[in-house]
Amino acid sequence: MINAAASVVASIPSPSISYFDIGPLRIHIYALCIIAGIIVAVLWTNARLTKRGAEPWVVIDIALLAVPLAIICARIYHVLTHWGFYFGEGANPLSALYIWEGGIAIYGALIGGAIGAWLGCRWTGIRFWTFADALAPGLLLAQAIGRFGNWFNQELFGWPTDAPWGLEIDYPNPAWPIGLPEGTLFQPTFLYEVIWNVLGVLVIVWVGRRFRLQWGRLFAVYLVWYSAGRIVWESIRIDPSEIYLGLRSNVWAAIFGVVLGIVIFFVQKRRHPGLEPSPYVSGREWTAGQAVQSQNTDDFVDVSEPPTSEAEGATATSTPASK
């Protein structure tokens, strides 16, 4: 058994609070981290889509469907993979609804968010894979920001350790492993994932610029990068989880994420060897002139100028994705 009390001088302290009150309103820092991540992802995705030629802030229309579905499915996924925690002996089933206490699963969020994004793209005319590629770096950065919520909640930490960067956890703690003495330090899995995700953002941005990955292949890189890291972090976490064939459920989900990313990359590369002609599906294109309204009528006036030649028109429809 590891007694890490001697290395506390070099350890990582956990925050002393996880919420604060403003009058009768209780603000959970976990929720603020999630909200901050969503805002960052929306702003960055908007910039990348706009650079591709999409209508400014069309991402809001997509997010109105994607974000709620992502949060709902993230909670459902977490509850299903931690069933005993909410419905086991002595558990409070109503706590399955207490999302402010923590407990949303990224892979559930990806499933729900993908469904919502697909519906939003159908609504707005944006190509689903164009949106996914634009979202990729912002999504990974949002996940890095969201992990700080686990730090404030003092949850989802890893094995005991005597490393200088061991994480201090308040004792007693509902997540404290039975049998470990007070003063034990733990692997800061939240920090490992933050570092991994930030590095992944740099990789995704560089790969997108260097190879002009489109048609969902940049999102495929995100899936492989993020999931490869999750295989490691999930393997050293000690919070309760359903076990299948000797592996935690989220390890299996991460393995599936790597495989799915590889499949998407090569299938899309074979199906679409060229660049996307537009961020919009055929027949749903948007031009800046559609947003200019006549002062004399209620009709929209198209002030955009058509290409002056076939060559110029071809160039206009083959602009590469945002870098």
TrEMBL record:
Comp. bias intervals (Low complexity): 305-323
Pathway stated in the Swiss-Prot or TrEMBL entry: Protein modification; lipoprotein biosynthesis (diacylglyceryl transfer)
Membrane protein topology class: Multi-pass membrane protein
One GO term describing the cellular component: plasma membrane
EC number(s) given by UniProt: 2.5.1.145
Chief subcellular location: membrane
Pfam families noted in UniProt: LGT
Segments of this protein annotated with the region Disordered: 288-323
Compartmental location: Cell membrane
Keywords for this protein: Cell membrane, Lipoprotein, Membrane, Transferase, Transmembrane, Transmembrane helix
Transmembrane regions listed in the UniProt entry: 27-45, 57-77, 97-121, 128-146, 190-208, 215-233, 245-267
Lipoprotein listed as a keyword: yes
InterPro entries: Lgt
Gene Ontology terms describing biological process: lipoprotein biosynthetic process
GO MF annotation terms: phosphatidylglycerol-prolipoprotein diacylglyceryl transferase activity
Binding-site list for a 1,2-diacyl-sn-glycero-3-phospho-(1'-sn-glycerol): 147
Domain of life: Bacteria
HAMAP family: Lgt
Protein's job: Catalyzes the transfer of the diacylglyceryl group from phosphatidylglycerol to the sulfhydryl group of the N-terminal cysteine of a prolipoprotein, the first step in the formation of mature lipoproteins.
Family classification: Belongs to the Lgt family.
Protein name listed in UniProt: Phosphatidylglycerol--prolipoprotein diacylglyceryl transferase
Organism of this sequence: Microbacterium kyungheense
Organism classification: Bacteria, Bacillati, Actinomycetota, Actinomycetes, Micrococcales
